[in-house]
Design goal:
Order of helices and strands: HEEEEEEEEE
Number of helices: 1
Low-confidence stretches: 9-21
Strand content: over 45%
Strand order of the largest sheet: 1-2-3-4-5-6-7-9
């Protein structure tokens, strides 16, 4: 993971030498999350918080994005599941008008972490990876601020279960997915 982050930072630094017209943004988001995958029959839909939504454009159309999100799902009987996703990937932006643009953001979910609460497995942590297919419809509000309507689909697999200080491989009934519909606020600089 350190190598991927270092590569991402290096690409950003190198590209800034070439792309004088580059634009970056930093934002936050909130949305409605619908769970999927193995075991999702026992989960209710929940809330998704986008803590870090970062994008950097190398040109008017192409760039990179980095995101950290977290979803909370209540079990239908008792307890809850929290799922955090850290993802990076390319971004394609299309200007639809002077104040309206569309971002398409396929990403690699470097880390998907799940933690249960109130289920009797509070010391268990699930870890995995996957992909995120993200999109944002952005509306210019002022010179620096934009509102976004987001639609993101995440899919992946749990690879490890850590419980009681021991790590176990997870090989069956380990798929996870979610569909998030939300809104965000970003600042362009």
């Amino acid at each position: 993971m350190k190598k991927i982050v270092l590569l991402f930072i290096s690409l950003l630094a190198f590209s800034s030498l070439k792309a004088q017209d580059s634009k970056a943004y930093l934002g936050v988001s909130v949305g409605y999350a619908i769970p999927g995958g193995d075991g999702s029959d026992n989960l209710n839909s929940g809330i998704n918080l986008g803590f870090i939504n970062f994008g950097y454009r190398f040109s008017k159309a192409w760039g990179a994005t980095l995101n950290l999100t977290s979803s909370g799902f209540a079990y239908k009987n008792t307890g809850a599941l929290g799922v955090a996703v850290f993802s990076v990937g390319p971004m394609y932006s299309a200007s639809l008008s002077e104040k309206l643009s569309l971002d398409l953001k396929p990403q690699y979910a470097i880390s998907i972490v799940g933690k249960e609460s109130g289920t009797g497995y509070d010391d268990a942590t699930l870890r995995g990876s996957g992909i995120v297919l993200g999109s944002s419809l952005n509306f210019g509000v002022t010179k620096g601020f934009k509102l976004s309507l987001n639609l993101d689909y995440t899919t992946g697999k749990w690879n490890e279960l850590e419980m009681g200080g021991t790590t176990y491989k997870v090989t069956s009934k380990n798929s996870i997915s979610s569909l998030v519909m939300g809104a965000g606020l970003r600042y362009n600089f």
